[in-house]
Fold each of these.
Amino acid sequence: MADDSLPRRRFLLGAGLAGTAMAAGIAEPLEAQQPTAASPAGQQPSPSEPEPFVTLTALEAAFIVAAVDTLIPADELSPSGSDCGVAVFIDRQLGSAWGGGGKMYRGGPFAKGKPEQGYQLALTPREYFAAGIAAANAWTRKTYGKDFDRLAADDRVAALKAMEGGKAEFEHFDARAFFGQLLSITMAGFFADPIYGGNRDLVDWKMIGFPGLPATYADKIDDYRDKRYVAAPQSIADFS
């Protein structure tokens, strides 16, 4: 990380590797969610109408919102992470079958593996994030005297840097691994289809020029050969 702030450019560059990072982590948190009465497919509340969290406790939600807003601060490129719906995305994923470990092998043994072997714990993703948030808050209280979400902006950046570098001493928990999972699911929420809760109003696809759902462009090849193809991005909801 840069000394002055969490580097958005590196964050965006890393997004291209998000799939690889997830494959080596807990799981890929893009399992389809059924629309709820409060949030039909294709509709997302405006920032002034926040969605209720379905699984995160108030303390956990405060941590997640603070973390995604630190990783994705509001600037000329996009709104903050929470205003882009990233916290809602994380909440939905952790409240889904994926969050409950629905597709995970959990029979053990769970020996400590090498970093390249990925996730090796018996915890479900939901349990993992609950334990990680609790450990992170315990460490920031010991180090800074406050829970993570109550820290000043510069201290949040410093705390995340310490986690990323493995310098944060979590009790009975791997701070670096937790930061990696937090960063991966934040990137997934930032760039996922809006139907999953993040990427509100397609703001992130518009930022990078990604056209969205259409999977084939055979009819565009001849017209756009050696030319840049520009099109308004489309969500799954646009085809529902």
Note: The chain is about 40% helix and 0% strand.
Amino acid sequence: MSVYLKGLFLFFIDIKNIFNDTNFYLYGCVENVKKPKLVFDKIKVLLNQFNDRRKYILKKYVYTINHKRIAINYLFFSMWTGLSGAALATMIRMELAYPGSPFFKGDSLRYLQVITAHGLIMVFFVVVPILFGFYANFLIPYHVGSKDVAFPRLNSIAFWLLPVGFLLVSKIAFLRPQFWRYYDKTAFFFPLIDKSVQRENAGLRGDSFFNKKSLRNYVLDEHSWFWRERKKLNFENYTAYSFIPTKLLYWNNMINYPESFWYAASRVVKARRRKVYFTKCSNRTLTCAGWTFVTPFSCNTKYTGVGSQDVLIASVIFAGISSTVGFTNLLITRRTLAMPGLRNRRVLLPFITISLFLTMRMLALVTPVLGAAMIMLLMDRHWQTTFFEFIYGGDTVLFQHLFWFFGHPEVYILIIPTFGIINMTLPHLNTRRVASKHHLIWAIYVMAYMGFLVWGHHMYLVGLDHRSRSLYSTITIMISLPATIKMVNWTLTLLNGALKVDIVLLFSIAYILVFVVGGFTGMWLSHVGLNVSMHDTFYVIAHFHLMLSGSTIIGIFTGIYYYFSAIFGIKYSRVFAYMHLIYYVGGQWLTFLPMFWLGFSGLPRRIHDYPVIFMGWQGMATTGHLITVLGVCFFFIMLLDSHLERRVAVYSSLGIPRWHKRVQYYIFKIRYLQYVNKKLSRVPNYNVRACLTNSYFNEYEVYSK
């Protein structure tokens, strides 16, 4: 990265020299060449320099087979896809900030396209590449003791398959829905004089102010559903009296006076949002199946015609092939290129490498299932098979079983590598060993194994029998046990050490807090009875976003700051790193906590409009999202500032304990023991305590010779 920025900087300096200076030079050419006189000569020189830079960039970034360079390519690719996914999320939050479809203007198809593309991009093209492309490619060859991966060119192929799938899925969000639509914006018109209102109230003016006919029309039109004529009382000076208060008689004039506040409030209340009528629609652009490809919408071209749904399926297949090639290469590297001492000694590997190898083995089991489901979908759509068509003997729920057998282990595949990151950062920042390393390792293994057995808790309402739902619920609740073991070990690791408060430690603590809340709310959803009331509501949105956008992404940021000097060879900018922490974590809490209350209220997801009573929580969630986006902006500013300042890193750690760290640890222990002995020296020893006991509690006669 540093060489690339230096070359880019020199490139722009050369452009300046071409147009301004009398002398200029080319890379590899003779210096002090005379200044060209014609504009075409300047353009020719500029193109020559661009060609030299092109060869340099292609050789270093496109044609590279170096595992570190490919890992950094994965990092930059995930940053770009993360920005696109965040842009789609911003569209969603702007749509939900107010009722009445303020962003998409009633275009529910476009809304479905955006949420589908957002989900697929964030899962398949952001988190998976940065964990199994960036971290795995960069660290695993170091940690197993090899120079590179087993098949370097295959490693490059695995990366370059990803942009193809990303381009396909990102196109979905910007396809123009093929239909004619008509809608009216909500307009508030405030004239100075509204003559129609004056004409309506003409009967209440002048001599006929208390006219019975006018009063009856007034009450019938404005204030009552059923009007019965009241009993009249005859007095000397009144022809008719109806018990209607005088203020109520004047009220209509008050609220219809054009320059009053009540007139504005009345117009806002009376304003109606007109419906959007679709007069002509093509199902080519429909993505009503969502990012989970729910059948029968995804398996039948009647609902989603030949078009966007097929593009989505192709993009998922590309992502699956890429991840399969990548993790197979890395697993073969572990098996064939590891040092002799590491062949069968898992405990010698760093935590992050253990968790990455475990999750890559999980990917090896679940990715073919997803690929088979996608191929079966394509066959149902275009080759007249009936795997998921109920009317022809297929099973619609079968696809959900196949998808969630991939989908739920995928959640653990994404979260377990971040467990490894936290397992490494906490003992490093506390200068002590981790509490019970073997328990931490077995906790993630048990969590991974049990994760293959609980996919049915996504399907409580699709018609499963009660025994299956009880089993899925029980095993899901049991997963909280290894998660609790990890929490206890993390807490014990933070005790009795020399704590170094740094940005990595603060990110780690933020990760633990978000993980606790996300896991606790997940236990609610594991219960069948509670899940019935919260299924497909914003409660589910809040839960899995706290686990993915919260815990997983915060863990990824923790690892980036932890390995920053090892990746780029420089120190990160502390000011912008702290701004990133404050805004991102605070924005996450402010975004997703209100969604729990929306879920409690029963507000369904995937609906782009909602009653006005929910506007408060939705507005708070949108505000939190904008704060989160500001935190992401500070992350990119931190990267830019770090590369501009280029402060030299004193040492870089790749997860391997350095000798000076051990020396610091031993010095701390020696000083700690000296401190304890000094404090304990003031405590009387056994002989002194026995003498004092005999002196003050001499209830017996001391024996003496």
Note: The longest helix spans residues 108-144.
Amino acid sequence: MLPNSNLVGERAIVLFGKVRLGSLAPPNWSEQTFGQHALSALSCTMAERPIFTLNKPDVALEMTLRPSIFSEFTGQAKVKERLEIAVAAARQRGEALDHILLSGPPGLGKTTLAYILARAMGTNLKATSGPIIEKAGDLAGLLTNLEEGDVLFIDELHRLQKTIEEYLYPAMEDFKLDIIIDQGPNARSVRLNLPRFTLIGATTRSGLLTAPLLTRFAVRERLDYYQAEQLQQIVVRSARLLNVDIEPNGAHEIARRSRGTPRIANNLLRRVRDYAQVKYDGRITASVADKALAMLEIDQNGLDEMDKRILEAVIVKFGGGPVGINSLAVAVGEEPDTIEEVYEPYLIMEGYLNRTAQGRVATESSYKKLGLKSAAGTQQRLI
């Protein structure tokens, strides 16, 4: 090892042409050996980053409501079947899984499936997210610490910087990592061999991924919104894990107002549980669930206060549309990305909003929902 690993990790490592350090390595070190020691020291500086490993059933994870095996995962039947076949085939061949891309709106189970896949393969899982990987050295530290067959899970993959994304290409395709040592006329490239690993990427906006990255995922699966019956099963299971007494009708009432999203269903279950505990005897019935959700301002169709503010802004402030996303965001006091990723997909799916080339347009359903009269000849009729 180097005499002072802290110095190497913090000041002396020349990854990707930052600092000259050829003189710090012992003269008998090859470039390959030097690169490996450099990356090893670099990874020591990343301890504060939120990266965790799943090697065996984790006690903290088991305490959550997240399913840990395929049989406990409700919904997404076709996606689950294809992934189970991929796992079985890879295990029979004794190989790592192909790289997998999971896309779809937030809260549908992309992270859960990544953990299930790693557990089904009996391998470690290292998790991070696109915005956290700020430098190419961060990605290098992650990749060089992987073992044979490990799973690297990158959430919000579309937010990965494009310059960093390019280092993934040889890593995914050839399981090699190219780094640049030194700079200027003395710069030289070192290629490190990586163990065969599986990259599982999750994204809520697959359209923002570049074609070179997208095509390197052999398996691409999109998760869709859940039906109320499927969400009811999830609510019942979660209630059992939380030791909540719930009736089938109460579970259905929560499920049908959960916007087709398990994460929302579990969050609502917790809030309804609190209401039932304080206001009643703790048992969740249809009536108790209805009163609790009314208190939370979630209506019969699952629309909350922000949904209605968005529809009202489009109709009242912008004459029914079309209106651009940035103008709409300013009108309701919300970030454009949040509207596009969280609120808008459900409003469009339920027929309250249309997305056109000119902007967002309110539909007849949104007028009826808010009890407003659609004037003849309004702009949305012309779209």
Note: The chain has a mean pLDDT of 78.
